[in-house]
Amino acid sequence: MANSARNQPGAENITTSVEEPEINPLDTVQDLYEKNKKMISTAITAVVLVVGGFFGYMFLIKAPKDKKAAESMAMPQLFFQVDSMNLALTGDGKNSGFPKIETKYTGTDAGNLAHYYSGIAYLKTGDFKNAIKSLKEFDGKGTILENQALGSLGIAYMESGEKDKAIECFKKATDGDKDILTTPLYLYQMALAYEAKGNTNEAKTIYIKIRDEYPRSIQARDMDKELARLGVLD
Question: What's the whole-model pTM score?
């Protein structure tokens, strides 16, 4: 009987298959977790600690520090506004001056702004070395004070006899977005720096630029006189 079955046409194509048990993907994930759960738990804990630490720092430490720093700026800013530069720098015995705020509240917006105020106050009192130090530490990138800080730094360098560094600062202060008030002012300072170096051609070019591009500026009023002094009469 078995032989006759094997001899029937197509019998050689008859095979017996055994179905493989279906694997549940969830079981695989569970197995992987069981094997690595200690490492996974450690990683999750680390992430939680980092995130929790960040928000804890921001709300429990940085925010109160920022608030105190901003409050400490009130009196020295008032001294600055009424042109009491010595009090703005040294304080009045009860309130700190800008240099102490720089140090005490480093890393805050107010601490950064104190660098700018210190630099301007030092510049006005003739302390050019400290003016340079404070203005260099001020980060004004992207703010309305950026060009003023660069221009003031240029003036401090010029007063210190560092003409090349002064010119570099004036170039940065007058590059990019143009300000009708500060750009012609620092262009004029740059022209004076070039004259001090003996480069009158560069100075002439800048004087003409101020006259033609900023005709309504205060500096433009004297440009024909400055140009005539250098031999340009047109």
Answer: 0.72
